[in-house]
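cron nightly-structures :: item 1 of 1
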Amino acid sequence: MALLVNPTSPDLAKADSREQQAAARTLGLQLHVLHASTEGDFDAVFASLVQLRAGGLVIGTDSFFNTQKEQLAALTVRHGVPTIHQYREFVVAGGLIGYGTQTAELSRQVGVYTGRILKGEKPANMPIQQATKVELFINLKTAKALGLNVPLSLLARVDEVIE
């Protein structure tokens, strides 16, 4: 497996790497951490994935990757690498799997907190919020292009199938 992180966001990259390494160890998998901070880095990343014979790619948490979802989705199909990202928009763009909280819900929570602060609440007195709904999205067209059969047991759990 491989994890793509942005080295220009070192805190996010370290946190993602630490969490994914722990998960990989639990599953007995080797995890290769790859770096990209510009569009020009993507070709080298995908060449490395092919050379490493990585069975899949996790795209790390970073706003840069969110803005490059179409290019990343196209590269995953072109190079035959099953890939997961945190947002539905990646799957709509042609990526294989999205697993995370929808951006609209996150934005709503930010708005609620902003309103509370503007009404005089002190941020230090406000509880930390965490998303309570995580959703799974699968693109069946991409799965077919990658030669993958998605089991019915998984399709039964998907929040949305995109074709």
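cron nightly-structures :: done
Residues 3 and 75 are 15 Å apart (CA to CA).
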